[in-house]
Amino acid sequence: MKKLTLSAIALSVTLASAAHAAPEVIKFSHVVAENTPKGQMALHFRDLVAERIGDKYEVEVYPNSQLFGDGKEMEALLLGDVQFIAPSLSKFSKYTKKLQVFDLPFLFEDMEAVDRFQQSDAGQLLLQSVKSKGMIGLGYLHNGLKQLSASEPLRVPSDASGKKFRIMSSDVLAAQFDAVDAVPLKKPFSEVFTLLQTRAIDGQENTWSNIYSKKFFEVQPYITASNHGVLDYMVTTSAEFWMQLPDADREVLKKALDESVAYGNQIAQQKADDDRQKIIDSGRSQILTLTDKERGEWVEAMQPVWQQFEDEIGADLIQAAVQANQ
Ligand code: LMR
């Protein structure tokens, strides 16, 4: 009897201290699959936090728009329903016009140029561009260059004329498709597969890893390897959440995040190459390579969009991005 009472006391002490020490849950919500740079980065962050400060914080990752789709994730962040998101840079235009620079078609020659711009003073300053709206950009994460997929082959701009393309919620991307007389439709990422499958739209633009992981290639017989724009992310938290953290904890979380972003960036190019190859191997979609002349026609048709958005974005910022190509 005495023994039983003692073990009951021991158990209740254990339960009480466990309840007391329950780690604070940090929710990381995103819209893509787990086998993408963003999906992998978020899981890496979860693991590093568990390893380094798991007694105090537990990161829960919600992929595939499970918790919030891209129409809602920024509001959810500001309401405190999630603590980390990593939306595409194309989705911030409600909060800042500056990040639109990343959407300008044919601005960056390759991902190295994108990276140089992001790491430049001008690029780093852009991480603060949504601060007045209560959000803090903690770093850039790569996905990669966008390709054009469609139900019919797109070799020259006139092939896109009259066709409907899903775009992210960006006026620059809308103007880019207007420039080739196509019809842009702003739709959430979670709806793209069904829109393509039912032929409600004719095409879309995305990276190799998104086209592969969301199976767009199964319902799009042609993918033009256009590399016409970039799809990268800003890993974002809310100022309210971030600033109330004890300094020492914030430091540990930031270091874990920086390392996770570096990891995501390191695997992004390989993922793009592998997923492109898997699409080729599937035989479901034909990849079209443009001649210099064909590509030149797309550039000529779409580049006037830069001028159209120069006042909103700032000529200096566009110039700084152009310089990153050298
Ligand atoms: C899209 O909506 O196409 C992308 O932003 C999805 C993503 O987060 O990569």
Would you kindly provide a written description of the structure presented here, covering whatever features stand out?
- By secondary structure, the protein is α/β, with parallel strands linked by helices.
- The chain is built from 14 helices and eleven strands.
- The strands form two sheets. It has a six-stranded mixed beta sheet with strand order 7-6-8-5-9-11. Strands 2-1-3-10-4 form a five-stranded mixed beta sheet, with helices on both faces.
- The longest helix is centred in the last third of the chain and has 36 residues, at 247-282.
- The mean pLDDT is 95.
- The structure holds (2S)-2-hydroxybutanedioic acid.
- Residues 31-32, 70, 88, 143, 168, 189, 206, 210, 231 line the site of (2S)-2-hydroxybutanedioic acid.
- This is TRAP transporter substrate-binding protein.
- It comes from Salinivibrio costicola (Vibrio costicola).
- Keywords: Signal, Transport.
Let me know the largest β-sheet.
6 strands, mixed
Question: What distance separates the N and C termini?
Answer: 81 Å
The oligomeric state of the chains shown is: single chain
Helix content bin: 40-55%
β-strand number: 11
Radius of gyration: 22 Å
Shape, principal axes of CA atoms: globular
InterPro entries: DctP_fam (IPR018389), TRAP_DctP (IPR004682), TRAP_DctP_sf (IPR038404)
Keywords: Signal, Transport
Signal peptide: 1-21
Organism: Salinivibrio costicola
Topology (elements, then pairings):
Layout: H1 2-20, E1 24-29, H2 37-53, E2 57-62, H3 73-79, E3 84-85, H4 111-119, H5 121-126, E4 135-145, E5 147-150, E6 164-167, H6 171-178, E7 183-186, H7 192-197, E8 203-206, H8 208-213, E9 222-224, E10 230-238, H9 239-244, H10 247-282, E11 286-288, H11 292-302, H12 304-308, H13 310-313, H14 315-323
Parallel strand pairs: 1-2, 1-3, 6-7, 6-8, 9-11
Antiparallel strand pairs: 3-10, 4-10, 5-8, 5-9
Helix pairs in contact: 2-10
The protein binds (2S)-2-hydroxybutanedioic acid.
